[in-house]
Amino acid sequence: MVECPHLLLENLSTGYAEPRGRRTVSSELNLGIASGEVVMLMGPNGSGKSTLMHTIAGLLPPLSGQVKILGRSLARLGRRDVARALSLVLTERVDGGNMTVWDVVALGRYPYTNFFGKLQREDEKMVSEAIEQSHLKGMEQRLIAELSDGERQRVMVARALAQDTPLILLDEPTAHLDLPSRLDLVLMLRRLAHELGKSMLISTHELDLALSWGDRLWLMDREGKVVSDIPEALVLGGHVGRVFGTEELSYDVERGEFLVQREDLRPICLVAEGIPSEDHRVYWTMHALSRLGYKRSEDTETGLKLVVTATDWQIKDGEEVRSYGSLTDLVSALS
Ligand code: ADP
Ligand code: MG
């Protein structure tokens, strides 16, 4: 950890002070984000990611403890100073009305403009730069309402960049996006963080995304507790399995995916012939067989034996051999 992290949470407890009593969501968090670091905040639905984001953004008061940005306590900053310290990108689809891309990105400059909100030349330059950095050049005059979800999300990132804050918080920014747009957005955020030295906190419930692209992961469990480390260390430490696993689902550390726990799996001995055992054909054959209720076994003596070659799939049952020309045919024969 660097000496003065962009964000520091000290004994922070989040939650809601309801009329019938306090409702604590997370308690006693001690976490930090360094300059240029991308932290993924990952946890199941309802664990408290948005509550934490809102608390860090100053929209929800902490139940106790404090949020520090660049060494200064958030509670002591005025609204304008908070807006210069952090920007927040939310999940909700924005209703842009008749606003253009330029208009929305320019909103990011409001903490710097005078009473009338008039942009100076310097502000316009920042808006242009933010648009360029978010790959929106040439789209300045497009209406927000007429953009794709991925483009609209890039506009919200551009607005956050125009706000020129050391810390950017993004609450489930990929929620409405398809896989390629999700990756596009996350890679763009990583590049911006690393090139511009911005700290990013990105919440997601998508395991793959967080494990692959976070410099660090804050893994939040259903009780709102958080462990922080690099993603791989959290996998190896069993934390990912503990947080996301259920009675039926267990996290397979070797494959990096969740497997359904089943007692009734039938053994199948799968061997590659004339192709490497790590060939894609072998992997996807086992993928299909798992769905049919088979588990891979090393035992060549009992049970079914399946040979995968470069051209076919052969089931050997004692002396009898049946060959299938496609995986589809094999699967329908075994179903
Ligand atoms: P996540 O973003 O991880 O899905 P949230 O932070 O939205 O989780 O919710 C965490 C917990 O706080 C949930 O139990 C939720 O019901 C509760 N909660 C969320 N918003 C409020 C609110 N405005 N008042 C009281 N409880 C809330
Ligand atoms: Mg949420």
Automatic annotation (TrEMBL):
InterPro entries: AAA+_ATPase, ABC_transporter-like_ATP-bd, P-loop_NTPase, Siderophore_ABC-ATPase. It is found in: Cell membrane. This is ABC transporter, ATP-binding protein. Pfam families: ABC_tran. Gene3D superfamilies: P-loop containing nucleotide triphosphate hydrolases. Residues 7-247 form the ABC transporter domain. The keyword Iron applies. PANTHER family: IRON(3+)-HYDROXAMATE IMPORT ATP-BINDING PROTEIN FHUC (PTHR42771). Keywords: ATP-binding, Cell membrane, Ion transport, Iron, Iron transport, Membrane, Nucleotide-binding, Transport. GO terms for biological process: iron ion transport. CDD domains: ABC_Iron-Siderophores_B12_Hemin. GO terms for molecular function: ATP binding; ATP hydrolysis activity. It is a peripheral membrane protein. The keyword Iron applies. GO terms for cellular component: plasma membrane. SMART domains: AAA (SM00382). It comes from the Bacteria.
